[in-house]
């Protein structure tokens, strides 16, 4: 990366901020227009802002990170339906047991405190 590219990156981010600000202001100025037109205009501005942002060093790094994350997700071994149901059942049973234990402890302590207070 050259220092000139870094200098231009600041200008590009300024353009991105200006485009986003134009979208926000334009959406409120044209509040009387059809929602469809405003949404389409905002989508167009978002695409332009995204294109400009991806031309920066941080934008390219983000895109690279996104591609690598997508590749890592493909490597994940997802559980089968049966494994998911069994794990869910274990969690539900554990939560019920802990809930009953806490309820019993709360009831016992409440009984002791009410007996001590009178």
From TrEMBL:
GO cellular component: plasma membrane
Keywords carried by this UniProt record: Cell membrane, Membrane, Protein transport, Translocation, Transmembrane, Transmembrane helix, Transport
InterPro entries registered for this protein in UniProt: SecE_bac (IPR005807), SecE_sf (IPR038379), Translocase_SecE/Sec61-g (IPR001901)
Single GO MF descriptor: protein transmembrane transporter activity
Compartment annotation: Membrane
GO biological process: intracellular protein transmembrane transport; protein secretion; protein targeting; protein transport by the Sec complex
Transmembrane segment boundaries: 12-30, 36-54, 84-105
Domain of life per record: Bacteria
Role of this protein: Essential subunit of the Sec protein translocation channel SecYEG. Clamps together the 2 halves of SecY. May contact the channel plug during translocation.
Subunit description: Component of the Sec protein translocase complex. Heterotrimer consisting of SecY, SecE and SecG subunits. The heterotrimers can form oligomers, although 1 heterotrimer is thought to be able to translocate proteins. Interacts with the ribosome. Interacts with SecDF, and other proteins may be involved. Interacts with SecA.
Family according to the record: Belongs to the SecE/SEC61-gamma family.
Record-linked NCBIfam families: PRK05740.2-5, secE_bact
Protein name as annotated: Protein translocase subunit SecE
Source organism of this protein record: Marinobacterium lacunae
């Amino acid at each position: 990366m050259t220092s000139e590219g870094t200098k231009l990156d600041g200008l590009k981010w300024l353009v991105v901020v200006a485009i986003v600000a134009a979208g926000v202001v334009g959406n409120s100025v044209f509040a009387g227009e059809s929602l469809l037109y405003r949404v389409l205009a905002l989508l167009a501005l978002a695409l332009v802002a995204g294109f400009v942002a991806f031309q920066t060093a941080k934008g390219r790094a983000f895109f690279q990170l996104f591609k690598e994350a997508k590749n890592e997700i493909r490597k994940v071994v997802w559980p089968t339906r049966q494994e998911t149901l069994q794990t869910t059942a274990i969690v539900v049973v554990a939560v019920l047991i802990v809930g009953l234990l806490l309820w019993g402890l709360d009831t016992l302590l409440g009984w002791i405190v009410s007996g001590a207070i009178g």
